[in-house]
Design a protein that fits this description.
With 831 residues, this protein is α/β, with parallel strands linked by helices. It has 26 helices and 15 strands. The strands form 2 sheets. The chain has a 9-stranded mixed sheet with strand order 4-3-5-2-6-1-7-8-9, sandwiched between helices. 40% of the residues are buried.
Length: 831
């Protein structure tokens, strides 16, 4: 097969290629690549009888079929994320032209709602762990029925969370996961997005970050966001100078915690119709926000921000429906309701947009009167009104931006994820074929024997070198992480460690250290300090609970707040002496049993410590999941260096002379690189030990509660005589001392974290060492097997072997050309 046509196609400018052409070229290249490998399997039975090559071909077939399926029905995924109450669900409904995503209540948004096109409606509510809502599949539902079921599901989710809070049940409620199929506006009105033929669009409505305070739900959302192009919604009403800093902090958390790719984002400044006469010009505010977002998210250039009035766009679009401009598919009652809401809720926008145009203002007023009187509005008038609202609301800007991003990012977002594994698998096949081809070009038995001897000599050397390189690297990492764990924490001590890491070429180490320290600060500032202040200032249950709900699940926030309140009530009559609070209760001289008042106070303090401990654990686990990329970046920089060292060690052994005529080194090198997938934190890396059981021991007349490895500092009660009166007293830490002990517990957790991270990284390196050893053995086994076969061929029919080798080389070159073509398509350029 000639690859000249393919090569020509692979070397023109692909970054400007039309997405339709790019998709079809990827499908064609993938099809031809599959035919090439199938031809080798079908025509050269003696070649594929080699177990190593056969394994690679079988692996290729699996990833090839997956890629083929993904390119047959590719999807461009768009997710809405953003700050609290920024109108994310309203934006989704405006984009699809239907009222599907629930928007009626402040706490309504919950779960992952994926909406895709289908001519018949279909609703799937997946049966997630712990679901108390109705799960199943429903077809041919009306929009109102879908909306109602989604609303009930999300209400049930929030109700279950509240129920667990009351029962003090710490089990996580996994967010609902819902799929909806229905006719979508951007598919039926194809000019809005100019979707390439065969490219589907999926739109995700995701909950706000404040609704997701458990690690499991956060991880699920992260997985979806990482595969999507993101619309990031901000609330205009939060951009005044008093609240802008808090808005930007929340935006930073949203982007970092949800793992959004900043290069795949459009920012939407929603609710700009809420502006008033005293506000600065909108253009000025947008420019200020662009500068501030660029700085806080560390973007390479100023972001694109679209001022938007999502509510107006939603009403107008849903009054028309999901059809193209040829005709509306909305029933008269829905149209009437949507238009009435538009004129009532968006009067300021309409007034500002029609100022100075009497004719247009009169036409709008006439429409509004007809709606108020219940008269039918024609499709032509509705279409005209939708056109105006799209322009006034920022809808046209949004659709234009989305069209441009689909044109620019289809390769990166759609093609590359689909074909990446095929590209890697084909490269492994190509390297294995190189060894087979080179072996079949050996012409003498003497050369066969020389290569066999060479391989036998190098096999043990490679094994020793891999072990030595890996162990040396692991020892260096272990030593450095041990230094960090035992360091004093002063800037000088950490600076010295960071300098040592830089000298070794380990990237991301300062960020790694900074995050672990920042985590402790976060626990102190957002949990420990508010609890301490609530105790000292006797703040009520609800203000503290509201504050804590922003960073931990509602049921834990409620538990901490109620524990604080109970502690304050039971210690109301105590005295403060230094770092202690002393509660005294008059008792009889020979009383041995603790007084009821003492017992209640004792239980309250223990419950407070336990609830704070639970809050710290939960927040720490959530932060670690949210910032897992920090650890992964650092770990992957280490893994990359270890891989380079391993490859270098093998290369040094195999290229001492020019005896490696089979290309074994390249085969090993390719295998090691492709096996080194990015390191990811597993779900259970950061499971904290739960609070140990409290044991009570008696010594004289003093009862001491001890709990090793906890942030509980201790308490005691005893009989004391004051004058002629006997008192039973309970001594507990003061509120400041409690906060100090909780902070010490958080700091102790930092040391445990370093140990967990060290074990995680070292464990992966051990696995990589074993995988490299296995790859070397397989590469050498492939070579030895082919040398044995070549001995037989030389003795029997050498000319035929040479002809087969030449044909295999042509096919291998064609495979490499198709791999290059797919790589260029996936990356969107010809580099």
């Amino acid at each position: 097969m000639s690859s000249s046509t393919l090569s020509d196609g692979a070397h023109h400018r692909l970054d400007s290629m039309d997405p339709s052409v790019a998709l079809q070229t990827a499908r064609d290249s993938l099809f031809d690549l599959g035919n090439l490998t199938a031809g080798i399997v079908n025509e050269y039975h003696d070649v594929v009888s080699n177990s190593v090559l056969l394994e690679k071909l079988e692996n290729f077939q699996v990833v090839y079929e997956e890629a083929n399926a993904r390119l047959r029905k590719p999807s461009f995924r768009i997710a809405t994320i953003g700050t609290t109450s920024s109108g994310k669900s309203t934006i989704v409904n405006a984009l699809i032209g239907r009222k599907i995503a629930p928007i009626e209540a402040q706490e309504m948004s919950a779960g992952i709602l994926r909406i895709r096109h289908g001519e018949r409606s279909k609703l799937v509510i997946h049966n997630t762990e712990g679901a108390t809502w109705e799960c199943g599949t429903w077809e041919d539902l009306r929009d109102e029925e879908i909306y109602s079921r989604l609303k009930l599901t999300m209400e049930a989710y929030h109700q279950e969370r509240r129920k667990k809070r009351k029962k003090e049940d710490k089990a996580e409620v996994v967010i609902p996961q819902i799929d909806v199929e229905c006719p979508l506006l951007p598919v039926r009105a194809s000019s809005l997005l100019n979707l390439p033929e065969g490219l589907q669009v999926e739109i995700y409505d995701l909950p706000g970050l404040n609704s997701v305070q458990d690690r499991t739900s956060l991880r699920i959302i992260q997985e979806h966001v990482s595969k999507c192009f993101s619309l990031v919604a901000l609330d205009y009403s939060q951009t005044d100078w008093q609240r802008r800093e808090a808005l930007l902090r929340e935006l930073k958390d949203v982007v970092e915690f949800l793992r959004g790719q900043t290069s795949l984002m459009i920012f939407l400044l929603n609710r700009v119709d809420m502006r008033n006469q005293t506000d600065n010009p909108l253009e000025q505010k947008v420019e200020e926000l662009r500068e501030e977002i660029k700085e806080i998210l560390d973007l390479p250039e100023l972001p694109f921000i679209i001022p938007l009035s999502a509510k107006a766009l939603f009403y107008a679009q849903c009054a028309w429906g999901a059809n193209s401009s040829e005709g509306s598919d909305v029933d008269p009652s829905t149209k009437q309701w949507m238009l009435s809401a538009l004129f009532e809720d968006c009067a300021n926008l309409i007034k500002a947009s029609t100022r100075g145009d009497r004719e247009l203002k009169s036409w709008i007023a006439d429409l509004e009167n007809k709606v108020e009187e219940g008269q039918a509005i024609s499709d032509n008038d509705t279409r005209l009104l939708l056109g105006y609202i799209r322009e006034w609301s920022g809808g046209n800007l949004l659709w234009r931006a989305l069209r441009e991003r689909i044109q620019a990012d289809t390769a990166r977002v759609v093609i590359l994820p689909a074909v990446l594994q095929v590209i890697n698998s084909a490269r492994e096949i190509s390297s294995a074929l190189d060894v087979i081809i080179n072996t079949r070009q050996i012409q003498t038995l003497e050369e066969v024997d020389r290569q066999r001897k060479y391989i036998q000599e190098k096999q043990e050397q490679c094994k020793e070198a891999i072990n030595q390189v890996a162990q040396s690297f692991i020892d260096d990492i272990t030593g450095l992480l041990n230094q960090v764990a035992s360091a004093s924490g002063t800037p000088e001590s950490l600076s010295k460690i960071e300098e040592e890491a830089r000298k070794k070429g380990w990237q991301g180490f300062p960020d790694f250290i900074d995050f672990v320290d920042e985590q402790v600060k976060d626990l102190i500032n957002k949990i420990i300090a508010p609890v301490r202040d609530a105790l000292k200032q006797e703040i009520g249950v609800y203000p503290l609970e509201d504050s804590l709900k922003e960073v931990i699940p509602a049921h834990i926030a409620n538990l901490v707040a109620r524990s604080c309140d109970m502690t304050l009530r039971t210690l109301r009559d105590c005295e403060c002496q230094g770092d202690s609070l002393i509660l005294r209760v008059p008792v009889e001289e020979k009383t041995k049993k603790p007084h009821e008042k003492i017992e209640r106070a004792e239980r309250a303090v223990l419950a407070l410590y336990q609830s704070v401990r639970d809050a710290l654990e939960h927040r720490a686990e959530f932060l670690l999941q949210a910032k897992a990329q920090t650890f992964e970046r650092f770990a992957n920089s280490l893994i990359s260096q270890l891989i380079a060292n391993l490859i270098g060690a093998v290369e040094e052994i195999l290229t001492v002379s020019e005896e490696d005529k089979l290309g074994i080194q390249e085969l090993i090198q390719t295998g090691v690189k492709l096996r080194s997938e990015p390191l990811r934190l597993t779900q259970d890396v950061f499971l904290f030990n739960k609070r140990a059981k409290i044991e009570t021991t008696k010594k004289d007349k003093t009862t001491i509660v001890e709990e090793p490895r906890s942030c509980f500092g201790g308490k005691e009660y005893k009989i004391a005589k004051v004058g002629t009166e006997f008192y039973q007293q309970l001594i507990v830490p003061s509120f400041d001392k409690m906060a100090e002990e909780w902070s010490s517990g958080a700091d102790a957790g930092k040391r445990k974290l370093w140990q967990v991270l060290k074990e995680w990284i070292i464990g992966y390196m051990e696995e990589l060492r074993e995988a490299t050893q296995k790859l070397v053995r397989k590469a050498l086994d492939l070579s030895m097997g082919e040398l044995d076969e070549q001995r037989r061929r030389i003795e029997e029919n050498f000319n035929q072997a040479v002809a087969i080798a030449e044909d295999l080389e042509n096919r291998k070159n064609a495979i490499e050309s198709f791999v290059q073509s797919l790589s260029c398509l996936g990356s969107g350029n010809d580099e």
